[in-house]
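Severity: low
Component: inverse-folding endpoint
Summary: output formatting inconsistent between runs
Steps to reproduce: submit the following structure tokens with default settings.
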């Protein structure tokens, strides 16, 4: 019976120590810092996503048509070189593959 009473007293002291630790200012500051860090991370992730969307759509609208046009120009130049060589004219530029 005395052993049970002693265990109950130890259980109360454990819970009171736990209560003191969780209500300490250090723990509350840590929780606040973690909450602030999560908030900033969420905002940063959202703004990074928006910036990636803007960069991606700008690339598709401006750069991809430029690349396609440059490829067409290169194919056209190669075709002119082939036709000139078939007609017997000396090549005007180096042919590369």
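Observed output (run 2 of 3):
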């Amino acid at each position: 019976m005395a052993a049970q009473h002693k265990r109950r007293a130890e259980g109360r002291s454990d819970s009171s120590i736990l209560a003191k630790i969780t209500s300490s200012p250090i723990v509350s500051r840590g929780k606040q810092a973690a909450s602030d860090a999560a908030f900033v991370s969420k905002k940063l992730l959202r703004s990074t996503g928006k910036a990636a969307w803007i960069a991606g759509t700008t690339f598709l609208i401006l750069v991809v048509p430029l690349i396609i046009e440059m490829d067409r120009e290169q194919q056209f130049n190669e075709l002119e070189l082939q036709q000139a060589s078939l007609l017997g004219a000396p090549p005007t530029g180096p042919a590369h593959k």
